[in-house]
Amino acid sequence: MSLSPAKRKNMLELAAYREKLYREPQLKFLFFELTNACNLACLHCGSSCSPAKGTFLPKELVERTLASVQSQLRERPYVFLTGGEPLLHPDFFPIAEHIHAQGLFWGITTNGMLIDGAAARKLNACGMTSVAFSLDGTRETHNALRRDPHAFDACLRGISNVVKYCGKAVTMVTSVIHRGNIGELNAIHDLVRSLGVDSWRIINVDPIGRAKKGDMLLGAEEMRYLLEYIRGRRYDPAETLDVTYGCSHYLTEDFENETRDAYFLCNSGVYAGSVLCNGDIYSCLDIERRPELVQGNVSRDDFADVWKNKFKQFRTDRSGLSRQCMRCPDRAFCAGDSAHTWNYDENRPNYCVKQLLEGKIC
Length: 362
Known about the structure:
Blueprint: H1 5-23, E1 29-33, H2 59-72, E2 78-82, H3 92-101, E3 106-110, H4 117-125, E4 130-134, H5 139-146, H6 151-165, E5 170-177, H7 185-194, E6 199-204, H8 220-234, E7 242-245, H9 252-255, E8 272-275, E9 280-282, E10 296-297, H10 303-309, H11 323-326, H12 331-334, E11 342-343, E12 348-349, H13 353-357
Parallel strand pairs: 1-2, 1-8, 2-3, 3-4, 4-5, 5-6, 6-7
Antiparallel strand pairs: 8-9, 9-10, 11-12
């Protein structure tokens, strides 16, 4: 499929803008990994979280980071509280109250299992403006992936409580699609639409965390089917649900700006920064934890200063480091693809949708 003149123009303009963004990053999204503790141990978890882990980011470090950002940066970033399961943090609600008191918008990513009616009312009182629930299939499939026989019903109860008590919050269901649930797309769609949420965000399982093992990754035909399915939903005039692919990956000229509202741009270190549960300053939380990618620690470093002066590994076109990328005609649009699936030992992408769809080995 050849690019339309308008799409090519847009993609070239984005490539030029990306280069400007490397020089002048904008902190739009600030993530706090409140804990690596989780009440689940999901098969596909990119962070390999489990009930056995239990490091919690101190409330005072969250407050210190926010003070640094607000006093030194012109941006007022959207704040995301995540984990692990963020609601396990003993100071979750005091942290949420503090963020709200600063006049910042904030949201959470959750498995939904801990959101009873009382918790939903407290989330609303703290000014929560968005919530993303992880729901990865029908009951049997979701419970198998989450390795908990009660996960599905508990998640649905959590969604129901948020829809009921948090009327101002934008609600999203995120589904990770893999070989075991790709046949359930229509069933998941109908389920999600019945829940009364605003949007359904679909991502494919990536070779990170626990998903490096096993046989969960989609093949070429399955990936193409997934992207065509999302595009079909988005262009269906009868569709009432906002269906979108996630932010990850350059999706080739066939699917860019057709499966989501924007063209691909890896946010790591240019739009998005994060603080890990141990205080380390990081970029995207999905990136494997490597010492050379840690930019500092909020217990001793000023976050705003680090944001302005570090993150060099993420403010560069990674495609120039890879021989396979150097030969690719789409490298100007892709720039090495997502930072969370980059191979930092071999300087090449571990995952490339273009290569996958062309039948090549990533």
